[in-house]
Design brief:
This protein has about 300 residues and is an alpha/beta fold. Helix content is about 35%, strand content about 25%.
Length: about 300
């Protein structure tokens, strides 16, 4: 039996979220896509660990305290005395939220395949990585592919979230690298917004065709935001409706979806049940501000599902 349900790899970022009361004030929180996802999974009852690097600074110490408080194992977190912990700002406007990043040279961006030497990947049921993990630096990209190789050699399933950020890399490189990564994923979690950039179309069926033609052989769950999700298991395509809510901040919704889906799969749900649960969890995560604070716990999701 694996020691962990989910081991995630990636970049944590301190979050400074603009308040609605005064646009000059920012509330500190925590972010980083795979960190958000692994915390969401832990809140659903999954056994989780995180692989990353943080700076030897106050923010790095806060992250270590956060993960331990959330029940996420930190044995795979390296502390770098010569690099800083990354951060980002969230500003809110009529067109939604906008992000500004201070991440160049962060401790996480300096990760190398040696980060994996503790053997955590081999002790998981799922390895979870993302397009951001692939994009933040060449060494981080190498580390993600090394982790995928180690996972597959050990019989660990690989989960990949597209999380395309074109500020981090050119579209052509993003398309090539993600195409290679999705070929090795047991679960691919693209969003429709990301795929519009990668494929040039806005049709879900054609998008799923593109993903299959690109070499995806595992399960694909296409995220459609307020329109729910589509499960493509290679044989059938099953739409799953979203929970309609009055969202105020969707910063961590996709990450919440990923972590909740993986947690429910580890707890025995079939794909439609797991995606239905993840849709509800993601919707509930948009009812508060920030990436981590609004992530729901299992009791909240189950209560909404029951209703």
């Amino acid at each position: 039996m694996a020691d962990f349900d989910i081991v995630a790899l990636g970049e944590p970022l301190v979050e400074l979220n603009q308040t609605r009361r005064d646009p000059r004030q920012f509330l500190q929180g925590f972010g980083g896509d795979t960190s958000n996802a692994v915390i969401a999974a832990a809140r659903q009852g999954a056994r989780c660990a995180y692989l990353t690097r943080v700076g030897d600074d106050a923010f790095g110490a806060q992250f270590l305290a956060l993960w331990r408080e959330e029940g996420v194992d930190t044995a795979g977190v390296e502390v770098d005395a010569n690099a800083h912990t990354g951060l980002y700002f969230v500003q809110h406007g009529p067109d939604g939220h906008a992000f500004s990043y201070l991440r160049r040279g962060s401790a996480a961006s300096l990760m190398t395949p040696a980060t994996l030497d503790g053997g955590l990947v081999e002790r998981a049921r799922f390895l979870h990585v993302s397009g951001i993990s692939l994009a933040i630096s060449t060494s981080a990209c190498d580390t993600v592919f090394a982790a995928i190789a180690r996972a597959r050699a050990a019989g660990v399933q690989v989960s990949l979230d597209s999380n395309l950020r074109l500020r981090l890399w050119p579209l052509d490189r993003a398309r090539a690298v993600l195409r290679e990564a999705l070929r090795h994923a047991d679960l691919f979690l693209p969003s429709m917004d990301d795929m519009q950039h990668l494929t040039g179309n806005d049709d879900p069926e054609r998008t799923l065709d593109w993903v299959r033609d690109a070499g995806a052989s595992g399960v694909v769950v296409l995220k459609l935001g307020k329109d729910g999700s589509i499960i493509d298991d290679g044989k059938t395509r099953t739409p799953v409706a979203a929970l309609r809510v009055d969202a105020v901040d969707a910063t961590g919704a996709g990450d919440c979806f990923a972590g909740s889906l993986l947690a429910r799969r580890c707890q025995g749900d079939d794909w439609p049940a797991a995606v239905r649960y993840a849709n509800v969890a993601a919707a509930l995560s948009t009812l508060g501000y920030g990436a981590v604070d609004p992530l729901p716990r299992a009791a909240q999701v189950l209560a909404r599902l029951g209703g």
